[in-house]
Amino acid sequence: MDIDLIHKALANPLRRNILQWLKSPETFLSVEECGDFSRGVCAGHIERLGQVSQSTMSNHLSVLQQAGLVLVTKHGQWSYFSRNEDVIQQYIEHLKQHL
User: How far apart are CA 49 and CA 29, in angstroms?
Assistant: First the structure.
């Protein structure tokens, strides 16, 4: 776990929103449109929620992935994102112990 990468990732409000959307995607997206979210959330749906260009969202998702906060699963040409709950919990524990 790289604390500095996590801090950098969480410094951006859109990236914090992405983590919130991934925590409970059914709150923000319809199951009819996206499926049951068992694979995660498709990058295109995250892009629409963020109302940014594909390249901008790709950059934000890449920063979250590099920090270890999200996991990506490829299915054909589609990328599905989900939260990495293990790393998020490790980070929370780190904050509890060191701040």
Answer: 9
